[in-house]
Amino acid sequence: MKLRSLAVVIFRQLRRPTRPRRINLLLKGAAFLLFLWVFDLFLYSQIHSVPRPPKDLDGPFSTGCQDPKKAAASHPRENATFVMLARNSEIEHARQTIQNIEAQFNRWFNYPVVFLNNEEWSPEFIRVLNKTVSGKAIFDVIPQADWDYPDWINKDQARASIAKQEKLGVWNGGKESYHHMCRFYSGSFYNLAALSQFKYYWRLEPGVSYTCAITYDPFLAMSTHNKTYGFTTALWEEPNTCPSLFRAVDDFRIANLIPSTPSWNSMIVVPTWDPFPIRWFKGRYLQSPHHSSSGSKWNLCHYWSNFEIADLDFFRSEAYQSLFKHLDRKGGFYTERWGDAPVHSLAVHLLLPPEKLHHFSDFGYFHEPFWQCPGNAPGKQMRESEVLGKWEDGERNDLTQETEGAIGCRCQCFASNPKLRRNNRGICLGIMQASQAFHRPSWWEIWRGKWPYSINIPG
Ligand SMILES: Nc1nc2c(ncn2[C@@H]2O[C@H](COP(=O)(O)OP(=O)(O)OP(=O)(O)O)[C@@H](O)[C@H]2O)c(=O)[nH]1
Ligand SMILES: [Mg+2]
């Protein structure tokens, strides 16, 4: 009742023709607040902007086919290996992956494969996979300490939290081993004795497939182009797997005085409509999911780490390891279900300049349920090659059409539409490449759904 009468009094005061100054004052106040809001949004957008570099900082390593034997003979192997984490029960899928990568690439380059397991390998797995790999196969068992809860975590609480995640339907959140796997791939795989001799690694998984021939050495290309981290696919993370991950990473950034670079900014939602006090309140007090303590919000984009070609020295660096230790102490690998994919992605965008990242847009790659697959480069399919296999007109209907601007070598894509390069919209790919991209779509193209930046996504 009191409130109502107060409202009536204010309304009457405002309407009194004898008091126009009050209205003026109110209007001025509102205009001032509006100005502050717009100014704050403008400032926020400027601080978090991703400026256009003077030129494209990344591009395909190769277009069409080369003679892989010549490529292999022209250079010694890099200090590099494939890595596959698998269970004994995944023997058939593991064999398929290896058979596929051998056929598409490794039969010419003979890189070793390190198989990792948290249990002893079955003799059958060793026998079958040994036969499938053309290079050396190494079967390693992960030390127990690297596949377990850290000492300082309360195991009962962690298990209760995992059970709760199961109930809440968090993707893979109810599987204890999955949490160990994510922590292992985030924090310790690069320190394994079996990998200590290698600089580069290429991550494989049971059941993935490569759908184009890879006729050059990607490890060598990473080295000659001075690249650190290579990816194929970028997607949104499942929001309920990692509500506090971004805050934890950003807290680390601030504590270590790491400036927010264009690469980092590309992980942040811009523009925001929340004015500063609301952002601050959400970040600091409400601890809203995916917000930093200062209220900026992660766009949830990350590279899909089931494919990675990367420089292990990056993960072994002081900076990455202290980031991992900081995250590990927060407990989110168990209290939530932080994945190694967003951990790696936030880390590379925090710690690396944009030119160190590479999109393997020339690779056809399939991991259930998503794929990317380039079209075939016109006139560059080496139809006469004995090494790759000759063919006559009309013989290879299984190959994807050669299309203008396409870069693939003998790709076999699944899409009915030959122009489709992936079965997801590539929005995160575009967003995460922004700091590398001089060529960008206009606002009109974005509005019409053409998100991806034009570098690396030809055709
Ligand atoms: N040895 C071992 N490997 C595991 C275990 N859990 C997962 N992995 C491996 O870790 C990698 C990722 O696991 P996946 O189950 O494929 O997880 P994902 O790719 O994130 O998710 P989906 O494939 O969509 O289920 C694969 O190489 C698995 O073989 C485990 O308990 N033991
Ligand atoms: Mg998988």
From TrEMBL:
Database matches in InterPro entries: Glyco_trans_15 (IPR002685), Nucleotide-diphossugar_trans (IPR029044)
GO CC terms in record: Golgi apparatus; membrane
An example Gene Ontology molecular-function term: alpha-1,2-mannosyltransferase activity
Annotated active site: 308
Transmembrane portions of the chain: 25-44
Gene3D superfamilies membership: Spore Coat Polysaccharide Biosynthesis Protein SpsA, Chain A (3.90.550.10)
Presence of the UniProt keyword Transmembrane helix in the record: yes
Family of this protein: Belongs to the glycosyltransferase 15 family.
Name of the protein in its database record: Glycolipid 2-alpha-mannosyltransferase 1
Organism: Podospora fimiseda
